Amino acid sequence: MTIAMPVLGAGTFRLKGEDAYNSVTMALEAGYRHIDTAQIYGNEKEVGAAIADSGIARSEIFLTTKIWMDKFGKEAFLPSIRQSLADLQVEYVDLLLIHWPLKNEEVAMSDYLASLKEVKELGMAKQIGISNFTVAQMQQAIDILGAEAIYTNQVEVHPYLQNRKVVDFCRENGIIVTGYMPFAYGDVLKDETIARIAEKHQATTAQTVLAWMRQNEFVTIPSSTKRANIESNLKASEVVLDEADMAAIAELDRNHRLANPDFAPEWD
Question: By the 8 A CB rule, do 8 and 33 touch?
């Protein structure tokens, strides 16, 4: 049985060692059932231990990991996934993503997406998808796999970077948008407009941003090491913004991109 991806997940980007273990433990205790990690985060063992120690049935947790670029070659792809599953102490992940598209095509996209599809066919991933893909790269991926095979595109989305071309293309092709870094490393939490809307709803600025994400039908995966924030974020589901609030936040878009490494694609 494949469970649907919960709209709010617990991210683990930049969390190492005990911080990763404790963050996932607190998230699961608070009621999160969607956990997001990646090979490059170097915390799959801690994430796996927290899930194992939680006592929560595996079938109740939606678990995502992502394959790193140095594992895209045919000889490395499957062994790396087997290692991830061993580290995570699970027999499958619910979602496996290509973490970044290759800029140099050192491995052809058709090859690494074929390997991704094979992982699903072998039962090691229930769903497969992509991350940080541009519109052109998504079109290429659709030409290779078919749109129905691509569960999500995980991209940076927050009020300061609304990524509309990518979002519109995903929607047109039935691909879920998972927005990472919803708070833009805290930048949007200090925004006057968001603070005003938060006060109106007697909510925190974080809850207001998460409500905006949810009402835009984005899945999102904030990370935190503080129990109070983890629990507070979950209560964002109770905050409902009106049309004026949504319109005001839509106006905040300013192409404020934070995830832009030298290997990033040419963004839309």
Answer: no
